[in-house]
Design brief:
The protein has helices at residues 4-59, 65-75, 81-91, 98-107, 110-119, 140-152, 159-165, 171-184, 190-202, 210-217, 229-232, 237-257, 267-275, 283-293, 301-307, 313-326, 332-337, 344-355, 359-371, 375-388, 390-400, 405-416, 420-428, 431-442, 447-457. With 458 residues, the protein is mainly α.
């Protein structure tokens, strides 16, 4: 029997060899995995390029849909199912590919996969077994992902399934389903969404945030706005406020993407906003009503003018902004009165609203600038004239005809040190106009204005 020391050495060598062999195996496995990943990445990148090329050929009429479907079916195998999904959803951003991608998702069985994923069913129907997805009950993030995919695809037949997903036990799934319902814009789903909004607004622990409902409901056209009527008459002030805010979001979204007439309220809703919401005891509701009144028309000007004198400053702010969007000359007196409001935000909104009314509003801003003694109010009037572009007109007018009210306004601006915009105008205009303006200002009786004009003329 070998001595103990020799046996110990042999054991240590055997252990070292075993560790070395295991290390080699691990290194080999890591290298093999890296090579496999790189190969898969190259396959997916090639597939992405080929997909774009083949979809472009289909859109151009160079190839048929059957050929495109055959190509995609070769890629729908277990390692690449999710990659195919992701690539198709990426290409949805190009509208010309959308019809073909929607049809591909149906024919490849992806829509069925997403639908059953949202439901959380254990397995797929027999005709979808070609996807070879292992049967399992999807977790919440998988259900949410599937609901989101149906919305990105704008798969309208799935609206009832997504509507039922609003009762999913997990919040992420509910929010994804709500966003998808907004993306699909199925009119039949709108009354149910409004009812869900009512339940959430009246609940102490809402199942979904009010903001999420507003974003989803705003995707629908204003022609469906009458569904808010029962909520706006609800006894619960929280329900009325949620409905008013959601309706406001809908009209704002519509005015930004379509013609103005599409954002007009129905006569029934107009009467409700004019007679009830504008006189609500709750100031938040009155503020929301002011925004809605901008879509009512000329008959809302008198109501909004009254609301510009509200005790709550933010109600006055919303009323002033709404008057500016009305573009009615009858709103001028109420807006002029708010140029000296105690709240700077109201003053700023009034100045911008007057500037947006055209020459009449700009003329009133000039007059108020000369009569107002509040330095902050004067600065806000100057800013409104600058941002609206009317200061360019004023400078050109002063250069052409000196000695009018416009000259007095520009001189006062120089004395206040608000000359940045004037200096830009001087550099931007030709020598003739710039020289005429400086000559007009140099004729001022104020030495400070004279010095500035001479310095700029150098």
């Amino acid at each position: 029997m070998p001595p103990f020391d020799e046996r110990l050495i042999h054991a240590a060598l055997a252990l070292a060899l075993a560790v070395f062999a295991v290390s080699l195996l691990l290194i080999g496995a890591a290298i093999g995995r890296r090579i496999k990943r790189e190969r898969n990445f190259k396959i997916v990148d090639s597939f992405r390029q080929q997909s774009r090329t083949r979809l472009a050929s289909l859109a151009a009429g160079e190839t048929g849909y059957a050929e495109l479907l055959d190509y995609f079916q070769t890629m729908v195998s277990p390692p690449y199912v999710r990659d195919v999904e992701r690539i198709l959803l990426e290409l949805l951003s190009e509208p010309r590919y959308a019809p073909a991608i929607q049809q591909l998702a149906e024919d490849l069985g992806m829509v069925a996969l997403w639908q059953h994923g949202v439901q959380g069913t254990a397995s797929l129907p027999a005709r979808d077994k070609s996807l070879k997805v292992p049967p399992q009950r999807p977790r919440s993030h998988i259900r949410a992902w599937n609901a989101q995919n149906l919305g990105r695809l704008a798969h309208r037949p799935s609206w009832e399934l997504l509507l039922s997903a609003l009762n999913d036990p997990h919040r992420d799934v509910r929010e994804a389903a709500l966003r998808s319902l907004g993306a699909i814009e199925e009119p039949k789903s709108f009354p149910f969404l409004v009812e869900h909004l009512r339940q959430c607004a009246a609940s102490a622990v809402p199942s979904l945030p009010e903001r999420a409902f507003m974003s989803a409901l705003a995707c629908f056209p204003p022609q469906l706005a009458n569904h808010f009527y029962p909520l706006l008459e609800d006894a619960d002030v929280r329900v009325r406020l949620a409905a008013a805010r959601a309706l406001r979001e809908m009209l704002a979204r519509a005015s930004g993407r379509a013609q103005a007439e599409t954002s007009q309220l129905s006569p029934k809703l107009c009467r409700l906003v004019l007679t009830r919401l504008a006189n609500e005891p709750n100031p938040d509701l009155r503020a929301a009503a002011a925004d809605l009144l901008a879509s009512v028309g000329s008959e809302a000007v008198a109501v909004l003018a009254r609301m510009t004198e509200d005790n709550e400053w933010f109600v006055r702010l919303h009323a002033v902004r709404a008057l500016g969007r009305c573009h009615e000359e009858a709103a001028v007196p109420a807006l002029s009165a708010r140029l000296t409001d105690a709240q700077w935000r109201v003053r700023e909104a009034a100045a911008r609203a007057l500037a947006s009314l055209g020459p009449k509003g700009a003329e009133l801003l000039e007059q108020n600038f000369l009569s107002v003694r509040d330095e902050y109010a004067r600065e806000q009037i100057i800013e409104a004239l600058e941002t609206s572009g009317w200061l360019d007109e004023m400078a050109a007018r002063c250069a052409a005809v000196n000695g009018n009210a416009t000259s007095a306004v520009l001189c006062a601006m120089v004395k206040m040190g608000k000359t940045d915009y004037l200096e830009l105008w001087l550099h931007r205009e030709g020598i003739t106009k710039a020289g005429a303006l400086l000559s007009a200002l140099a004729a001022s009786a104020d030495p400070e204005v004279q010095r500035w004009a001479r310095r700029m003329a150098v």
